[in-house]
Design brief:
about 325 residues; mainly alpha; Rossmann fold; 2 domains; 5 strands; about 55% helix; binds adenosine-5'-diphosphate; binds tryptophan
Amino acid sequence: MRVLSGIQPTGRFHWGNYFGAIRQYIDLQHGNESYYFIANLHALTTVRDPKVLAQYTLDAALDLLALGLNPEHAVLFVQSDVPEVSELCWLLMTGTPMGLLNRCHAYKDKVAKGLPADAGLFTYPVLMSADILAYDADVVPVGEDQLQHIEVCRDIAASFNHHFGETFVMPKGKILEAAAKVPGTDGEKMSKSYNNTLEIFDDPKAQKKKIMSITTDSRQMHEPKEPDGDHLYQLFSLFATDAEREELAATYRRGGFGYGDVKKQIAAAAEKYFAEPRARRAELAANPKKVEAILADGASRARAKALQVLTRAKKACGLS
Ligand code: ADP
Ligand code: TRP
């Protein structure tokens, strides 16, 4: 089975990205042929500062490698290093009905909010389809919000195959565990767009400050509380063993505790949990040549595969 997914370098990765996506990508690299890429072409639809985009792209590579993405198991590369995908995107674009893209939420949401939307955002699902089809991917693990784009990809692939003959492998979406919906510092879903994130590799002191400022309700210290549904309890659970989680749940039900103590426990647990990756990241950051070499090797392996598929597709539609 060939697994493929992409993640946009639109900011530093946060706990939601890790527990909701990255950790699962890392698990899937074992026992599958896997391709993971940093979707900088997609990020260009929102990040318009060249220095910032380049920095986020490098940070994304460092974060993924430090967290355990292993280039010996998975092909890790940067999207724009595989120009074959952009060429394939055009082939797909010519057969994509406007109506299909009109229904896509990324574009619709922006327009509904009155924000300017460009052709890049409108055709974003076609580039995403090219990303997937270029590697004959069987399975695409994504968050629920991306499932619509996988359906678009399947529609585009089916229509190309129907018109020009069997060319593309039909991919399947695999929803990443919904159970891992991570709350942010305001109790809502953690997301860059809500400004409520806790970054994986933030400086521990600065992060502790953010954790201590997490919004809570006005419960008094002596009052018991049901842990399920409480965002501090959910955050602690991300890092805790079953026994530690049970212990905190019992404390909640007994009452007589303060939220401040729970926050301190979260900060300590998170620091310990990410200590090893943090050290690995520092090592990698001090060795940029090594990271460059990993990405160059990933790009050359990805290009070899993408060229095969592009050649097949060009032949099919009379471009060879
Ligand atoms: P953001 O909302 O911060 O912009 P993205 O949309 O770039 O994050 O998400 C990248 C991946 O991380 C997606 O697969 C998404 O499902 C996952 N993800 C993001 N935030 C969370 C969260 N709070 N809980 C679980 N998964 C998340
Ligand atoms: N659009 C995806 C996101 O925002 C990122 C992405 C780009 C992607 N190309 C992809 C994901 C191909 C899976 C497959 O999360």
